[in-house]
């Protein structure tokens, strides 16, 4: 099975893919130092639970103790830190890299992500690098269709493109502005555990420091070494994607639509996945391919070669040739459909990729990172306002249920979908007969993008919502 790795600016490797069967326990995490004393009954970790702002308050400005420690300042970590700080909690956000830093991504934001960003009060002006798009262009099976994002009361009618180099830094600074304390260049090496309960009471970092918190959030992405060190491994019964991407100087840099190509061939097999061309508006296009692990040859595919072969079929004037490539081809895994559970255990909450929240229908992860962060923050704020540990625990246990209520049925449907499109005959049939039928594609766009009115809506919205609700969340 092929592996992809990425060297960060600090020299550490942050992305690892593929996936299935790959042991993800970092040896250094397993033996993390443990915190000595067990808490007395009625205490949460080593700090008595108290309402935010009330006394006694364990956190000191600039100190190594906080109400909540968030590990990883990607979209999920920065969003949870933003919401917690806004609610008046002392939040320490620990990030192993320094901003600005690269993150392997397609850089595409659907209306779902736009809504989440708007809810966080992130300004999105067009003249400040937020490139708007009006929909999806889908190409495949000899057909080509442009579908505008639906204008709904629940979601705006536009998406965005923004390079993750900027995007992640903007969100991290937004969290800082709200009052979160961000420490960059601080890799977390493992949890601090309460001897008696096994509950997480903080984390250790590479430079030998210890940070303590009443709760800890794992927002450290797909590999989530912190979750692994707490015994939470990836589930092999959940789908996983692998994607590679790069950038080319290209006249296709300016496009009103995100473009997806369904014709990815491996010999005579049509692969379950798609290629994308997202114009960045800066003279370059983000170009990549993503595949699901439900195809027979998933582990044996050379993704870089697949990308090159696919690009060789593009018109020469688009410029997707080696001389115009501005970045290396890099890849990473997309953990889908809750591929790490439970999402709460012993003082640790999982958000974003750490909890495997990528949408299995379309590979979108940023919106779910932001949304799960908001749900986690709401739970944490209520939990820390309780006056007893048992009361806090009752609230914390609802995090799992709230995530299941939000995505469980939809992700179960997504698992059926990825099994189906893993069969080349189904994929061929769907591509050949679907792309040329606008009504089918409009339905597909709402289903694949999870873009329905949350209440009411048209017949398609009501059907999709009903099916998602009726499907058991597993
Ligand atoms: C090729 C590719 C293309 C994609 N395209 C899209 C797309 O177009 N749109 C979309 O919505 N999604 C896309 N995704 C998915 C998306 O990138 C992820 O779902 C999203 O980044 C998840 O955010 P996160 O905050 O959970 O994790 P991450 O973005 O991975 O952030 C994790 C953070 O934790 C830090 N960290 C890790 N370990 C430690 C540690 N030990 N100590 C301290 N910090 C640590 C990392 O440095 C990082 O900053 C794509 C993914 C891939 C691989």
Produce the secondary structure layout.
Elements: E1 4-7, E2 13-17, H1 27-30, E3 65-71, H2 75-86, E4 91-95, E5 108-109, H3 111-119, E6 131-133, E7 135-140, E8 143-148, E9 159-161, H4 164-177, E10 181-184, E11 188-193, E12 200-205, E13 210-218, H5 225-229, E14 240-249, E15 257-261, E16 265-266, E17 269-270, E18 273-279, E19 284-292, H6 303-311, E20 330-335, E21 344-345, E22 348-350, H7 366-385, H8 389-421, H9 424-434, H10 438-449, H11 459-470
Parallel strand pairs: 3-4, 3-13, 4-10, 7-15, 13-22
Antiparallel strand pairs: 1-2, 5-9, 6-9, 7-8, 11-12, 12-13, 14-19, 14-20, 15-18, 16-17, 18-19, 21-22
Helix pairs in contact: 2-4, 2-7, 3-7, 7-8, 8-11
The protein binds flavin-adenine dinucleotide.
Structure overview:
Helix content is 30%, strand content 24%. The protein is an alpha+beta fold. Residues 1-61 have low confidence and may be disordered. The strands form five sheets. Strands 3, 4, 10, 11, 12, 13, 21 and 22 form an eight-stranded mixed beta sheet that branches. It has a seven-stranded mixed beta sheet with strand order 8-7-15-18-19-14-20, sandwiched between helices. It has a three-stranded antiparallel beta sheet with strand order 5-9-6. Helix 3 (111-119) runs parallel beside helix 7 (366-385). A hairpin with a 5-residue loop joins strand 1 and strand 2 (13-17). It has eleven helices and 22 strands. The chain binds flavin-adenine dinucleotide. Residues 14, 71-77, 94-97, 103-108, 113, 187-188, 219-221, 225, 243, 245, 288, 332, 334, 352-354, 358, 364-367, 369 line the site of flavin-adenine dinucleotide.
């Amino acid at each position: 099975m092929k592996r992809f790795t990425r060297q960060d600016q600090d020299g550490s490797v942050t992305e690892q893919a593929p996936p299935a069967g790959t042991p993800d326990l970092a040896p250094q995490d397993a033996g993390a130092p443990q915190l000595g004393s067990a808490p007395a009954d009625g205490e949460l970790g080593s700090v008595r639970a108290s309402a935010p702002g009330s006394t006694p308050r364990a956190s000191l400005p600039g100190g190594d103790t906080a109400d909540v420690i968030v590990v990883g300042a990607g979209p999920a970590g920065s969003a949870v830190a933003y919401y917690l700080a806004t609610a008046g909690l002392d939040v320490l956000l620990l990030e192993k890299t320094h901003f600005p830093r690269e993150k392997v991504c397609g850089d595409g934001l659907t209306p779902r992500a736009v809504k989440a960003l708007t809810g966080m009060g992130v300004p999105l002006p067009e003249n400040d690098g937020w490139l708007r798009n009006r929909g999806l262009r889908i190409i495949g099976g000899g057909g080509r269709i442009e579908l505008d994002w639906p204008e709904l009361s629940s979601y705006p009618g536009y998406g965005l493109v923004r390079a993750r180099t900027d995007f992640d830094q903007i969100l991290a600074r937004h969290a800082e502005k709200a009052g979160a304390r961000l420490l960059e260049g601080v890799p977390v090496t493992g949890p601090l555990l309460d001897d008696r309960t096994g509950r997480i009471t903080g984390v250790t970092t590479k430079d030998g420091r210890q940070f303590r918190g009443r709760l800890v959030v794992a927002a450290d992405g797909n590999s989530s070494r912190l979750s692994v060190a707490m015994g939470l491994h990836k589930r092999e019964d959940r789908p996983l994607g692998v994607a590679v991407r790069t950038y080319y100087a290209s006249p296709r840099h300016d496009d009103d639509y995100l473009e997806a190509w369904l014709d990815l061939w491996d010999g005579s097999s049509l692969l379950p996945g798609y290629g994308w061309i997202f114009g960045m508006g800066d003279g370059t296009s983000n170009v990549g391919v993503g595949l699901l692990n439900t195809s027979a040859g998933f582990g044996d595919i050379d993704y870089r070669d697949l990308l090159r072969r696919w690009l060789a079929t593009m018109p020469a004037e688009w410029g997707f040739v080696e001389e115009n490539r501005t970045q290396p081809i890099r890849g990473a895994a997309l953990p889908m459909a809750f591929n790490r559970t439970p999402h709460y255990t012993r003082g640790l909450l999982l958000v974003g990729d750490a909890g495997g929240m990528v949408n299995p229908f379309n590979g979108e992860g940023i919106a779910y990172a932001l949304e799960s962060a908001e749900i986690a923050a709401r739970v944490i704020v209520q939990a820390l306002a309780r006056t007893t540990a048992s009361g806090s625990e009752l609230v914390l246990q609802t995090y799992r249920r709230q995530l299941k209520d939000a995505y469980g049925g939809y992700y179960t449907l997504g698992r059926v979908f990825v099994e189906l499109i893993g069969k080349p005959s189904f994929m061929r049939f769907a591509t050949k007969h679907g792309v040329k039928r606008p009504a089918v594609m409009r339905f597909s766009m709402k289903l694949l993008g999870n873009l329905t009115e949350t209440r009411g809506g048209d017949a398609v919205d009501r059907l999709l919502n009903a099916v998602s609700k009726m499907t058991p969340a597993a």
